[in-house]
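Blackboard transcription, Thursday session:
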Amino acid sequence: MHGYAARSDELQARLRRIEGQIRGLQRMIEEDRYCIDVLTQISSATKALQGVATTMLDEHVRHCVRDAIDQGAESADEKIEEALEVVHRLIKR
Amino acid sequence: MHGYAARSDELQARLRRIEGQIRGLQRMIEEDRYCIDVLTQISSATKALQGVATTMLDEHVRHCVRDAIDQGAESADEKIEEALEVVHRLIKR
Amino acid sequence: MHGYAARSDELQARLRRIEGQIRGLQRMIEEDRYCIDVLTQISSATKALQGVATTMLDEHVRHCVRDAIDQGAESADEKIEEALEVVHRLIKR
Amino acid sequence: MHGYAARSDELQARLRRIEGQIRGLQRMIEEDRYCIDVLTQISSATKALQGVATTMLDEHVRHCVRDAIDQGAESADEKIEEALEVVHRLIKR
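(Written on the board underneath:)
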């Protein structure tokens, strides 16, 4: 079981909504909607996706990384570096 | 017809691929996959979505904004400010 | 004269304030201040710098790019692509 | 002593270089240099500042946060949330 297990229903619901937004974007392009309106919708989907990433990261650090350190696991160093690498990628986008 | 009309097939194909990535994310969570792997997939989808936004913006500026200025349209000022506002939002994420 | 000429005093004042923040950061590290406090100050300086970039870009588009298109300058295409490239860099950070 | 202590000389050198870049920006504006060149220099300074933030965060997590968890410190939860909050701010810019 991973760090996000307790919140997986919520995460699924958020991803389904994002999937709906992406399908909505395809419809907008099909209907030749105004560029700025399409861009506004893309911004909104990107922000929602970023929100899922943030929740995922939070739960990973609060549980997986924390437990590894707490238990003095041999993998603790590796877990910390792995999490930092993900953070770097999220910061740089 | 809007600025992106000539590239709408390509944009649709990219959005379908992103939709697939979002569905893939739901499967990953259902299968309780490792947080870091989920985060890597989210990063990839976000980057792809950002790429669609960039293409959209480029075509909007190259065509819609440019034409408005070129033709001395009364709406030229408005079009410039509207585009800059979208850029600000994309920069701030 | 470039697009930002009318706002150069304001831009200079903002840059001097940012320079002060960077010197403040050096003092904080010298005094071994708490990491989170240093990070908060870095965030603030980064945001201020991003703000200068945004103002600069806005004035460039409102004046330099607009004038090139308006006058049907041969360089209009080049100016548009150059501005978009800068926008891409700002978006990706 | 904080997490970055071992790297404070390096961090100071990087901040001095950034301070120089900010002063360079003021000179560029004084000399009415081309907007795009100024923006390129701002991008470079922002990236350098972001790099200092990343190093700072890494050392904070590797040492301060890790030690708090390792020693079962009462403040461990607080340290984790504090670090995540900073990460959120860096991601959103």
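Lecturer's comment: Chain A touches chain D through 19 residues (CB under 8 Å).
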